[in-house]
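Researcher: Before we compare anything, I want clean individual predictions. No alignment, no superposition, just each chain on its own. First chain goes here; please echo the sequence and then give the structure tokens.
Model: Echoing the first chain and its structure:
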Amino acid sequence: MSFSYSAHSTAQRATLHQHLQEILDRLLDRHDLRIDEGARAPEAQWKAFRNGFSEKRGDEEYPHRIREDGTSWAADIYPYINGTRIDVRAVGFKPIESAKFARFLGLLEGIAFDYFRALHAMTNESWRLRFGINWDRDAEILSDQTFHDWPHIELERVA
């Protein structure tokens, strides 16, 4: 099956770092998705903070900000199955929705791993993704954190 970005996702994709664009393009080859948000202005970040969708205020460094390279290193993405977006509000409450979202993120993690391994072999640069369901990157998802952000991914350069 072939998937393509909507106009909204295309516009959000353009705000992302090239590595995130490449990874999400590869994911789109395998699974339908929406890039809900890439770069976020400080006013929008304040709104996300006030509404409980972020733990970062708009006057501090936050993942969706525009970096020195002119791009955002974070995105909020949602999986679609048969043309329907998974209801993130049901994730954590309905096992089937949680399983669908977890499968989507596992697929993304595998794609990112392969992408970064190849990139490192070519450039010696080290990168990884950080997921909103595993902030501390310890493979223990959800049970060892209090703020769960299933759609959130962010790019990190590894020293």
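Researcher: Okay. Second chain, same rules.
Model: Second chain and its structure:
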Amino acid sequence: MSTVFEKIISGEWSGRFVWADDLCVAFATIKPTSPGHVLVVPRCPYEAWTDAPSDVAAHLMKVARAIGLAQKTAFGVPRAGLAIAGFEVPHTHLHVIPLRDETDILLSKATPASDNELDAAMTCLREALLAAGHGAHVPPSMGSAALS
């Protein structure tokens, strides 16, 4: 059985991608806690983050950090938060969230965003990642996890 994230990564279901490399992707969550909230997801569907090999887990953290730094620039926030819960989808995913205050980290506060809101936020984040020198990992199309 494929997970929702496998369907998004494969292009079967739509997604808004800001990062793609050989090990992982990052894309918008449709229910953000704040504008710019993304999920860093390994291409391989480890059920829990503790199931991922150490090198994959370390890589996910490196990518989450790069995205968090870009979120601070793109959205003018003082912090970028990180949450790993994994109850929603049995496929490891790190929530990287622009934080204006501590309540932005609360996944229980997530609400659906409009297509326009998601497009605008991901465009800003993609631009910040490009400006930070991560162009090799920003997919050419926001709608695809393809590497080139």
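Researcher: What stands out in the second chain?
Model: Residues 54-75 form the longest helix (22 residues). Additionally, The helical segments are 4-10, 54-75, 115-131.
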